[in-house]
Write a structure and sequence with these properties.
Elements: H1 9-15, H2 26-39, E1 46-50, E2 54-58, H3 69-82, E3 90-91, H4 95-104, E4 109-110, H5 116-121, H6 132-140, H7 154-161, H8 163-173, E5 190-199, H9 202-222, E6 225-236, E7 241-252, H10 255-262, E8 275-283, E9 286-287, H11 303-318, E10 325-328, E11 338-341, E12 361-373, E13 380-385, E14 388-401, E15 421-428, E16 433-439, E17 449-455
Helix pairs in contact: 4-8, 7-8, 9-10
Amino acid sequence: MGLMPGQKAADALALVPDLVTFDHDPAADRAALEALCDWCVRFSPAVAIDGDDGLLLDITGTDHLWGGEAAMLADLVARLARWGVPARAAIADTAGAAWGAAHYGADLTVVPPGGQREALASLPVAALRLDDAAEAQLPRLGLHRVGQLYGLPRAQLAKRFGLGFTVRLDQALGMAAEALTFRRPASPWFDRLAFFEPISAPEDLARVTGDALDLICARLEAEGRGAKRFEVVFHRLDGQAYPVRAGLARIGRDARRLTKLIVPKLDKVDPGFGIEVVTVHAAGVEPLAAAQARLDNAAGVSLDETLAPLVDRLVNRLGEARVWRADPYPSHVPERSAVRVGPLDPPSATDWDPDRPRPVRLFKRPEAITALAKVPDDPPVSFTWRGRAHRVRRAEGPERIGQEWWRAGVGEGETGPGKVRDYYRVEDETGGRFWIYRQGLFGGDEAPKWWIHGLFG
């Protein structure tokens, strides 16, 4: 029809009066391409986005699942066509040769191993992914086909068209490596199940989840490894993918335990007209030594081993950020003396100081109270907190704590006599035990104030 990319809309409408136009939406286009990239994981775990309208798949070791490269390529393009996504595709040893054959060669070209030199020879020089200047200048010199460049002196080509020109040529021919940025990191810990007929029943989804995890866990066990994160992805007939994830507190490879963590989350999977492919990924893979099975129900079992299944269930139900353990941190300031770590992380080298007991429940922010003391520097004899009066029966202290003036971020006004705290452990007449403190010293510019910082349980 005489239309071309970059043409002005007015010129295009003059050639085709009934032309339908839509506003360009680069963000939506990119999101659609990323969704297509995620869908292609059924063909390969390593998929990279190429420009604004292309995908590069590393299908090494996966084509046999479709009966060969040609059948795999035809299946991919046919599926896209059914969804209204026209595409051209090719397979070659190098990303550069596959790109050139897909854009300028015959559709569904499968370049034989080592045959990229012959396959590219008859293609235009634009098949090398050159910059605009080189692509425009080469035809003026009578160089229209890639094959015409093979016999030319490389030094002169690099001097005239730049080093990038020769690099692109070498990448296409397989004489130079090319790094691809895959959307998800390329990992060998990937397995796939395809079904002759689509499945949709909940019990079938639960069964194939266990089968997929059995596959990946068997591979991990054979290699003497375990993983901390597992992802099972259900691929529908219409291309929609539903990932379901599970994490472990410690590296493992028990398929039965993982299945129990993932099956309760399958209600989020909408099978639609059916699930045809299930893929499983393992991440955070580390060496894992085999453990000897115990001879009885208790001997030789560490506390971590018995806690790990419970921690895994809590983490996958409540979220990783909600399950943690408090470990001591070398700081005398109470609110900075503890840090959150994983529930089964190795114990900290720092231990709690038994001479300075701390409350079981430490408030995130101290709460103001009103207190009465016999003399200014004595512990209080009574205090009121949250509108309720408490008469003190016993008290221990004070423990004087000042701010860490040497820490970065502690500026003027955050240290000095007005910031000194005198902490007391007090018990009221009902047996409640509190951790309260007086901030500031008598005789200063401001009168000292009383606060409650925690409860001893």
